[in-house]
């Protein structure tokens, strides 16, 4: 049904027609007409954040935990520039986000008007696509296309910049229809390539699945198909930080996470395999380590919906462009049709080798009765929350890596962390977005004290909307990950990696009307965690942990997968000059 | 072939070669990129090259299909085979890009560029400049008592050669359009 209405009304109507139930935003002069329309309706819930960066991260948390795109509404100028970090974060982690920004009226664009910024110019490199809409009649089409672009193919953030006069003007609303734009990414993989991969799987002696966030982005069906394929073949599987939960941590073939702080057995399997099947993963530098020593003996297949991911970092032998779900379905079909063959004998030997690596027990740490070891805190958190309907977000740093190592994920969409951009300040607002989408779930942000402070203003949001998000802060009073690198690379000269003048987190929580819990004794930890879980409201949990713990295992930069540092290793001088120039 | 939509079998053939043999030899490729003619599209393409550190030797752009809203950007770039493949794949990701053609691979192709050159001089040098212009089929499009402006079209190498010859004869300024290129045949 087409109707005459203002641009502002169109925005709200288009969001409704796209099935949007929640918008994260912050008002300002250039979006007031849209805020007026939001005021006049009850279908879409608006979550008022305390900073626009928080809005985008909250939308990311919402998107990643639901599989639906997240929607953000902010004003022009500073509203838009504050969204840039979130957009970049979503771009690197392929999260579908639609950001609507207000803009000064079209006749003032280019005049350095109040709160004018070249928003499409600024956000061009940090969005999948963006639009400046100068004509109200074009607005509904652009909004519908924006949802298509954000979610089709490799997902990503998009932005629509809407001048204020376009919001006020009348135009003809068009409801959504199937996108007919030329942007229709290929989802089916080439059968010839798929057959080649299946043939390689039939004879492989040391195969490994290396999966990533693309499996989660492809949807729950992809994770299901992955589980079927892995369990039917018995091939071991590892995953990137972004892909945790696609295959269950309790699954028989699970190796654990790979990469810089990945598990020994996972990295060794990657290094020594003879067939690597990369699925929705992108050979990030945190995964490959030294590229010229990366898995030297393997044939490599790469399934990805984005052709530019293929051969970008590592040359592969069997490239398959397509959506993970579609391709996995075809792999299973072809593999079954050809008689479900694997090199059973050899694979059994490979599993035995992996068992030996597992025995190294790479996550072992020195326990303590006096101080809470961060690893211990996470083990207890895992034990006490694993049976809950649980979602985990994290900030960025050592705590993030420990969370990935010590928490187990049984399902996709349960783990949201800033992988590609490594954005401190992501986890708290993300946990808010997750809790909005899953009001009854137990949502925990595993945080470092420094990261958490970066978006601490969102405590106001949590309090206002009575969101029972649990902020589990592993407080080492250090920028721990920075401190670790300074220890390894810069002669233990701890330049500005202290968290000085920290607030009293309990009082801080109370100041916002939330609950604060302080815990510093391992003996009290279980009770304190239970108190956190059982409190019906936002909790700030200040867990004072060992200050100088390092996160191991670690592949130092510039080193290969089989040159990992394990727990108690001598760490000084392990990174050579060439490695030190890398990040 | 539309953006990101890679033709069946394209991973083995066509402009998108996903099974390349990588070498370190720098290659020069001419790419034809058909884009939606909308504001900012050129910025997207140029931003890709600057943001990812790719080379642009020359770039031309103009609308080629008014009703279809299509512009054609012709880019001459250099890089190792791996970089060239990345450039094409990255161009293909841009939502406003409809088609990416590697004329160097899909060729043979015809490349033409137009240049205008100002040559200032008198006496013998002036006569020699005119004589050489004749050999290169460059036209005189403006002249004063002590200067010529020549117009020349041709492959970039021909324009290089002509300007090299004009330099000692009083070349003061050159303006070049950059390369326009089309595949031969149908
Ligand atoms: C916005 C931002 N600034 C700086 C960094 C660099 N950085 C990475 S980890 C880290 C320290 C984080 O400290 P904390 O949150 O306390 O976590 P910890 O490592 O101590 O567990 C820093 C500064 C970053 N990732 N993001
Ligand atoms: Mg810390």
From TrEMBL, chain A:
<dbReference type="InterPro" id="IPR012001">
    <property type="entry name" value="Thiamin_PyroP_enz_TPP-bd_dom"/>
</dbReference>
<protein>
    <recommendedName>
        <fullName>Acetolactate synthase</fullName>
        <ecNumber>2.2.1.6</ecNumber>
    </recommendedName>
</protein>
<dbReference type="InterPro" id="IPR039368">
    <property type="entry name" value="AHAS_TPP"/>
</dbReference>
<dbReference type="Pfam" id="PF02776">
    <property type="entry name" value="TPP_enzyme_N"/>
</dbReference>
<feature type="domain" description="Thiamine pyrophosphate enzyme TPP-binding">
    <location>
        <begin position="396"/>
        <end position="543"/>
    </location>
</feature>
<dbReference type="InterPro" id="IPR012000">
    <property type="entry name" value="Thiamin_PyroP_enz_cen_dom"/>
</dbReference>
<dbReference type="InterPro" id="IPR012846">
    <property type="entry name" value="Acetolactate_synth_lsu"/>
</dbReference>
<comment type="similarity">
    <text>Belongs to the TPP enzyme family.</text>
</comment>
<keyword id="KW-0460">Magnesium</keyword>
<comment type="pathway">
    <text>Amino-acid biosynthesis; L-isoleucine biosynthesis; L-isoleucine from 2-oxobutanoate: step 1/4.</text>
</comment>
<dbReference type="GO" id="GO:0003984">
    <property type="term" value="F:acetolactate synthase activity"/>
</dbReference>
<dbReference type="InterPro" id="IPR029061">
    <property type="entry name" value="THDP-binding"/>
</dbReference>
<feature type="domain" description="Thiamine pyrophosphate enzyme central">
    <location>
        <begin position="194"/>
        <end position="330"/>
    </location>
</feature>
<dbReference type="Pfam" id="PF00205">
    <property type="entry name" value="TPP_enzyme_M"/>
</dbReference>
<feature type="domain" description="Thiamine pyrophosphate enzyme N-terminal TPP-binding">
    <location>
        <begin position="5"/>
        <end position="120"/>
    </location>
</feature>
<keyword id="KW-0028">Amino-acid biosynthesis</keyword>
<comment type="pathway">
    <text>Amino-acid biosynthesis; L-valine biosynthesis; L-valine from pyruvate: step 1/4.</text>
</comment>
<keyword id="KW-0786">Thiamine pyrophosphate</keyword>
<dbReference type="Pfam" id="PF02775">
    <property type="entry name" value="TPP_enzyme_C"/>
</dbReference>
<dbReference type="InterPro" id="IPR045229">
    <property type="entry name" value="TPP_enz"/>
</dbReference>
<dbReference type="InterPro" id="IPR011766">
    <property type="entry name" value="TPP_enzyme_TPP-bd"/>
</dbReference>
<keyword id="KW-0808">Transferase</keyword>
TrEMBL record, chain B:
<comment type="function">
    <text>Catalyzes the conversion of 2 pyruvate molecules into acetolactate in the first common step of the biosynthetic pathway of the branched-amino acids such as leucine, isoleucine, and valine.</text>
</comment>
<dbReference type="Pfam" id="PF10369">
    <property type="entry name" value="ALS_ss_C"/>
</dbReference>
<feature type="domain" description="ACT">
    <location>
        <begin position="30"/>
        <end position="105"/>
    </location>
</feature>
<dbReference type="InterPro" id="IPR019455">
    <property type="entry name" value="Acetolactate_synth_ssu_C"/>
</dbReference>
<protein>
    <recommendedName>
        <fullName>Acetolactate synthase small subunit</fullName>
        <ecNumber>2.2.1.6</ecNumber>
    </recommendedName>
</protein>
<dbReference type="InterPro" id="IPR004789">
    <property type="entry name" value="Acetalactate_synth_ssu"/>
</dbReference>
<dbReference type="GO" id="GO:0003984">
    <property type="term" value="F:acetolactate synthase activity"/>
</dbReference>
<dbReference type="Pfam" id="PF22629">
    <property type="entry name" value="ACT_AHAS_ss"/>
</dbReference>
<dbReference type="InterPro" id="IPR054480">
    <property type="entry name" value="AHAS_small-like_ACT"/>
</dbReference>
<keyword id="KW-0100">Branched-chain amino acid biosynthesis</keyword>
<keyword id="KW-0808">Transferase</keyword>
<dbReference type="InterPro" id="IPR045865">
    <property type="entry name" value="ACT-like_dom_sf"/>
</dbReference>
<dbReference type="InterPro" id="IPR039557">
    <property type="entry name" value="AHAS_ACT"/>
</dbReference>
<comment type="similarity">
    <text>Belongs to the acetolactate synthase small subunit family.</text>
</comment>
<dbReference type="InterPro" id="IPR002912">
    <property type="entry name" value="ACT_dom"/>
</dbReference>
<comment type="pathway">
    <text>Amino-acid biosynthesis; L-isoleucine biosynthesis; L-isoleucine from 2-oxobutanoate: step 1/4.</text>
</comment>
<dbReference type="InterPro" id="IPR027271">
    <property type="entry name" value="Acetolactate_synth/TF_NikR_C"/>
</dbReference>
<comment type="subunit">
    <text>Dimer of large and small chains.</text>
</comment>
<keyword id="KW-0028">Amino-acid biosynthesis</keyword>
<comment type="pathway">
    <text>Amino-acid biosynthesis; L-valine biosynthesis; L-valine from pyruvate: step 1/4.</text>
</comment>
């Amino acid at each position: 049904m087409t109707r005459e209405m203002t641009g502002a009304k169109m925005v709200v109507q288009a969001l409704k027609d796209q099935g949007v139930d929640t918008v994260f935003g912050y008002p300002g002069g250039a979006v007031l007409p849209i805020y007026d329309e939001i005021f006049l309706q009850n279908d879409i819930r608006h979550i008022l954040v305390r900073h626009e960066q928080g809005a985008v991260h909250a939308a990311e948390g919402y998107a990643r935990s639901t599989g639906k795109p997240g929607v953000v509404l902010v004003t022009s100028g500073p509203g838009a520039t504050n969204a840039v970090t979130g957009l970049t974060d979503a771009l690197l982690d392929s999260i579908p986000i639609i950001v609507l920004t207000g803009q000064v009226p079209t006749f003032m664009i280019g005049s350095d008007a109040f709160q004018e910024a070249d928003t499409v110019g600024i956000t061009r490199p940090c969005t999948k696509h963006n639009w400046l809409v100068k004509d109200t009649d074009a607005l509904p089409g652009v909004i519908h296309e924006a949802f298509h672009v954000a979610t089709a193919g490799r997902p990503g953030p998009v932005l629509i910049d809407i001048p204020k006069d376009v919001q006020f003007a009348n135009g003809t609303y068009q409801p959504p229809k199937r996108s007919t734009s030329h942007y229709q990414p290929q989802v089916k993989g080439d059968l010839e390539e798929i057959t080649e991969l299946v043939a390689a799987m039939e004879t492989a002696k040391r195969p490994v699945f290396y999966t990533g966030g693309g499996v989660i982005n492809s949807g729950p069906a992809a994770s299901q198909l992955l589980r079927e394929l892995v369990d039917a073949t018995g091939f071991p599987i590892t995953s990137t930080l972004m892909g945790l939960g696609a295959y269950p941590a309790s699954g028989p073939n699970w190796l654990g996470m790979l990469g810089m702080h990945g598990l020994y057995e996972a990295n060794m399997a990657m290094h020594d395999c003879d067939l690597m099947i990369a699925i929705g993963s992108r050979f990030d530098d945190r995964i490959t380590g030294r590229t010229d020593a990366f898995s030297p003996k393997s044939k490599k297949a790469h399934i990805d919906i984005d052709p530019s991911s293929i051969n970008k970092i590592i040359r592969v032998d069997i490239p398959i462009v397509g959506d993970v779900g579609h391709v996995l379905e075809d792999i299973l079909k072809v593999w079954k049709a050809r008689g479900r063959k694997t090199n059973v004998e050899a694979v059994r030997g490979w599993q035995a080798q992996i068992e030996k690596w597992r025995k190294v027990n790479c996550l072992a740490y020195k326990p303590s009765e006096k101080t809470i070891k961060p690893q211990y805190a996470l083990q207890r958190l895992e034990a006490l929350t694993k049976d809950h309907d649980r979602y985990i977000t994290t900030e960025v740093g050592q705590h993030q890596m420990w969370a990935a190592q010590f928490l187990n994920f049984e399902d996709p969409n349960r783990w949201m962390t800033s992988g590609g951009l490594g954005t401190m300040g992501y986890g708290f607002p993300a946990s808010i977005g997750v809790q909005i989408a899953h009001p009854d779930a137990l949502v925990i942000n595993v945080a470092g004290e420094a990261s958490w402070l970066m978006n601490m203003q969102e405590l106001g949001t949590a309090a206002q909307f009575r969101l029972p998000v649990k902020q589990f802060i592993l407080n080492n009073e250090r920028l721990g990950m920075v401190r670790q690198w300074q220890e390894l690379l810069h002669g233990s000269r701890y330049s500005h990696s202290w968290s000085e003048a920290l607030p009293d987190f309990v009082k801080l929580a109370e100041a916002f009307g939330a609950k604060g819990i302080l815990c510093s004794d391992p003996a009290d930890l279980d009770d304190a965690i239970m108190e956190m879980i059982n409190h019906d409201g936002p909790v700030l949990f200040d867990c004072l942990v060992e200050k100088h713990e390092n996160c191991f295992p670690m592949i130092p930069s510039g080193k290969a997968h089989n040159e990992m540092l394990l727990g108690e290793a001598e760490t000084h001088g392990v990174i050579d000059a060439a490695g030190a120039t890398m990040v | 072939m539309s953006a990101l939509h890679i033709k069946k079998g394209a991973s083995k053939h066509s402009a998108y070669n996903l099974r390349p043999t990588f070498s370190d030899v720098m290659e020069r490729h001419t790419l034809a990129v058909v884009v939606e003619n909308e504001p900012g599209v050129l910025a997207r393409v140029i931003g890709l090259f600057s943001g990812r550190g790719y080379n642009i030797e020359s770039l031309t752009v103009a609308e080629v299909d008014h009703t279809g809203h299509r512009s054609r950007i012709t880019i001459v770039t250099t890089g190792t085979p791996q970089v060239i493949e990345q450039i094409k794949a990255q161009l293909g990701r841009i939502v406003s890009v409809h088609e990416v053609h590697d004329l160097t691979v899909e060729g043979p192709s015809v490349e033409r560029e137009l240049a205008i050159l100002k040559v200032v001089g008198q006496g013998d040098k002036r006569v020699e400049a005119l004589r050489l212009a004749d050999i290169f089929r460059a036209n005189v499009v403006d002249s004063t008592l002590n200067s010529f402006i020549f117009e020349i079209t041709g492959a970039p190498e021909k324009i290089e050669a002509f300007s090299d010859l004009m330099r000692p004869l009083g070349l003061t300024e050159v303006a070049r359009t950059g390369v326009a290129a089309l595949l031969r045949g149908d």
